[in-house]
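Project outcomes to date are best conveyed with an example. Our students and postdoctoral researchers have been running inverse folding experiments weekly, and each run begins with a structure described purely in tokens. The record below, which covers 202 residues, was selected by the lab manager from last quarter's runs and is presented without edits.
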């Protein structure tokens, strides 16, 4: 039974097709939140109770606004590997959300550079600084999160049967990503870490 004191989100999820995205969808649905997963191909996804799929992306602010429309909060998992691309997508997302009523954002990307700038190039530091600056100048209640190590290929069924029989080598990353997803949903539900930069250590 749902606790009436726990807020129910209609969560818009960018990056839903990643392993962490699948972990988040399972965790959110288990807590009776509604999920709108933004994807580029509806044919790859089967409908589930509480889970809706929408074509969209972060190519420009109009697309970002249309993708997020109807939600009450956003989690954006930025594609790993290129901080310049992540900075551009972050700017597009913030500009798009400014056209909606959504004010809560969890932004996940390669932001370790903010913790250890000396390990990164000047261009990478500049890109991370751009992300932090655009968030700080926005009206959003944001949380910036370092992307965890990925383990590609984990789907929703893996996370639904986390205590079942697993392929060799899958158990540890599965449980790690599930715990990170639970921590991220806690951050939303309890309205924690506004304006903070987090690194989940599990």
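After processing, the design step wrote out the following sequence:
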């Amino acid at each position: 039974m749902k606790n009436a004191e726990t807020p129910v989100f209609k969560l818009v999820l960018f990056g839903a097709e990643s392993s962490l995205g699948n972990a988040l969808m399972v965790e959110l649905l288990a807590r009776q939140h509604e999920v709108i997963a933004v994807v580029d191909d509806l044919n790859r996804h089967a409908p589930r109770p509480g889970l809706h799929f929408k074509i969209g992306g972060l190519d420009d602010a109009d697309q970002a606004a249309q993708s997020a429309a109807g939600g009450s909060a956003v989690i954006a998992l930025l594609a790993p590997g290129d901080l310049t691309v992540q900075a551009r997508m972050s700017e597009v997302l913030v500009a798009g959300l400014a056209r909606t009523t959504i004010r809560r954002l969890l932004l996940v990307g390669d932001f370790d550079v903010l913790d250890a700038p000396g390990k990164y190039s000047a261009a990478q530091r500049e890109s991370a600084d751009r992300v932090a600056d655009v968030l700080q100048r926005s009206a959003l209640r944001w949380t910036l999160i370092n992307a965890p190590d990925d383990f590609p290929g984990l789907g929703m069924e893996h996370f639904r049967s986390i205590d079942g029989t697993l392929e060799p080598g899958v158990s540890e990353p599965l449980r790690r990503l599930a715990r990170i997803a639970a921590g991220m949903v806690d951050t939303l539900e309890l309205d924690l870490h506004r304006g903070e930069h987090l690194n989940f250590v599990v």
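The radius of gyration is 16 Å. DSSP finds six helices and seven strands in the chain. The training component of this project remains on track.
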